[in-house]
Amino acid sequence: MVCFLWLLINPISCVLGTQIYILNGTDPEGQPVRYGLAFDPGSKEYFRVDPKSGVVTLVEELNREAQDEIEVLVSISDGLNKVVEKVRVFVMDANDEQPVFQNMPSIVDVPESTASGSSIYKVHAVDKDTGSGGSVTYFLQDGGGNHNGRVQVMSSSATLTINVIDSQDTPPIFVGTPYFGYVYEVSSPGSEIFTVFAKDGDMENPNLIVYSIQNGADDVFAINKTSGCITLLAYPAHLRREIFNIKVKASEVNSEGDLMDSSVTTVTIRVVDLNNHPPTFYGEDGPRNVFEMTMYEHPPEGEILRGLKITVNDSDQGANAKFNLRLVGPGRMLKVVPQTVLNEAQVTILVEDSAAIDYEKSQTLIFKLLAVEIDTPERFSATADIVINLLDTNDNAPKFTSDFYIARIPENSPGGSNVVSVTATDPDSGLWGVVKYSIYGSGSDLFLIQSDSGIIYTQPWASLDAEVKSKYNFYVKAEDTEGKYSLAEVFVTVLDLNDHPPEFSNDSLEKTMIIGAPVKIEAVDDDAEEPNNVIEYSIMKTEPDNIFDINAQTGEIKLKSYIKSMDIVQNITNQRDCTWSVVVQARDRGSPSFSTTTIVKIDITEATQLRGPFAYLFMQSRENPMQILGLFAGVIMVMVTVTVLISTVLFLRNKKSNKILPSRRIIRRRAKHRKQWNFQNPFKPQNNGENFMMKETDVPTAENINCNNNSVGSRWSPPTPPRAPMPPPLPGYSRPGDRSWAVPTVSAAVASKSNRRPCKHKQENPINTALVSELKLRLEQKRMTNRY
């Protein structure tokens, strides 16, 4: 006997694979049992059971809205007996459906006159869920409910378009009233007598206007409901009255065809006979052909010129009294209403182009008002002059003749000097056209402006110096009495004058020249611009002369090209003194030109007889000690790098061949003579008279003590770098025994007396002696050649 126990649970918000129940059954005989699930044929199998454990899991998604009850056949068996029972599983609801609007999207038209709190539309939404998940609120969100084990709020949105409809709160307005029409004896049924015109008073969204006759027509006149044209229904002979006062109604019609607000006007129709009267213009005092008024310029567009009281009339009847009105004049400033008149009408003139009605362009406007009959063979007409006198308004700001002004003024101009005149005009009349000038800006401190004339001057205390500042710019403002203004920019250039002579620096009065290298003097001109500050150098006098050249642009002084040694210098002059007094002039290129002279004391000496590139560098860098230091630093770095490379190569070589070969003999190297370089100060006399010499000394050699040729003892070291030669004295530095010189003035330079110093004589080595002898021989041959 198999006993079976089934406990029903509600699978709320379960996902696939979820354990929803455990089947529990026993066999009285103690045999093991197996569980099973079965469904009706054609039904979806939502659950699956483990036959041993009885665990029931969900294998298909549940949807209460599609199926809220599931029948399952549950079985338990011990292998021989089997028990089957039908179980009903009820699916509870989960909040998995969102609300759906039933009548959306929708469009609602709401008149602007709708009262606050009025109901304008009702929305309706449906949620298929049950309980709180199916409740719908129309505020911020829905009620919400459980879904997959958590609270979920579903929502939906829809578009509701609300159009605010303009309310019709202004009745139609008739244009061109009063209305007068005429019936002539030659008229026939269907003739157009008069046309009324009305427009909706609501300007933004005007309604259609329909016309109707309320009374006074006596069934002999009709009106077109859309055009407003009044027509004759009978022959004039059948008319029982001479004058008809017809009440015409103009009604607004909305988009649904409903009649809205309305207005009523009177149209007076007179029965006349022949065309024997031309159109005539009338004023308040009778017929007139000139109408005059005064108004301000730039009236608003669409404004009626109420100063003109004009009525036009044609005393004929019917078509004989029908005529057109036209306004002829400058541009399209004005227009006339109505343009077609039957018998009589009040003439209305409207502003069409406000900008063209400008007092500054024309102070008086004259138009011709024409009335010309339309359907008569006579074509009678009438004209009237419309004279409009314009009054000025302050509608213009002052305007400069240029957006910017460029001025030039010489430096050192006295205070109060005229710089530039600016001009601005204001076309407005009277006080509105009065212009006042002012200046402002960071560059305006040194200037002032006459407020009435616009003339800009320098301040009385101002002193303009191109060397201090040569460019100024600031703004000038032109303003009328009501504060309307415009701006222009002023650029002032201070012209440089040649008011500074060149001046030599203090350190240019005494120079030491090494043969083969130039010395440089420098003068400074404080003028701001070229050519006033461009300096040219020249040698005015030297004793003895014909020994120096000077570069006119750079101020470099050098010996003539043929002078290459002190021996040649001594051959040129008989003096033993190696100091020359050179009168140098520095002249600028200004107009007029200024010049300054000075005496330059040049002490000529001969450089140590160094050879190679170092000697040339020493010569070029004699006045720049830092360059010499940099040179030696570079040489030391190169030598250190070479030493490291050589040591690395030797180390690698020794490491590679570190084996002892017993079959090799120990060989003693021969002693070699190494040359050592001995650099001495080229500017300091040596006891032996040699500035540069090379000595040969014996250097002990190392012996091989094993077969690997590894050296033992003192290793080779790079030679000691030569000491730098002593540079010539720096500017401003005086050594004991040096001469002192007087500082020259602009007009002249006079050197003070000083102790003269003999030339430095050196003991000649054999090479120098031979060179000097050869030079002397060549000079003597050249003199002999020139002599003969």
Summary tags:
flat; disordered N terminus; 53 strands; five-stranded mixed β-sheet; 788 residues; nine-stranded mixed β-sheet; mainly beta
Explained architecture:
There is one protein chain. With 788 residues, the protein is mostly beta strands. The protein is 9% helix and 36% strand. The strands form 17 sheets. Strands 16, 19, 22, 23, 24, 25, 27, 29 and 31 form a nine-stranded mixed sheet that branches. It has a five-stranded mixed sheet with strand order 26-33-32-28-30, with no helix packed on it. The longest helix is centred in the C-terminal third of the chain and has 32 residues. The N and C termini lie far apart (164 Å). It is found in: Membrane.
Radius of gyration: 61 Å
- Proportion of beta-strand residues: 35-45%
Topology, number of strands: 53
Major sheet attributes: 9 strands, mixed
Task: Describe the global form.
Answer: flat
Brief overview, please?
With 788 residues, the chain is mainly beta. A hairpin with a 6-residue loop joins strand 50 and strand 51.
SSE layout:
Elements: E1 3-5, E2 19-22, E3 24-26, E4 34-38, E5 47-49, E6 55-58, E7 69-77, E8 82-90, E9 100-101, E10 106-111, E11 125-126, E12 145-147, E13 150-152, E14 160-165, E15 173-174, E16 179-183, E17 192-195, E18 198-199, E19 208-215, E20 221-223, E21 229-232, E22 243-253, E23 259-271, E24 280-283, E25 286-287, E26 290-296, E27 310-313, E28 322-328, E29 334-337, E30 340-342, E31 344-351, E32 364-373, E33 381-391, E34 399-400, E35 404-410, E36 418-421, E37 424-425, E38 436-440, E39 447-449, E40 455-458, E41 471-479, E42 485-495, E43 503-504, E44 510-514, E45 519-520, E46 523-524, E47 535-543, E48 548-550, E49 556-559, H1 566-572, E50 579-588, E51 595-605, H2 613-620, H3 625-656, E52 673-679, E53 692-698, H4 766-787
Pfam families: Cadherin
Protein name: Cadherin-related family member 1
Membrane topology: Single-pass membrane protein
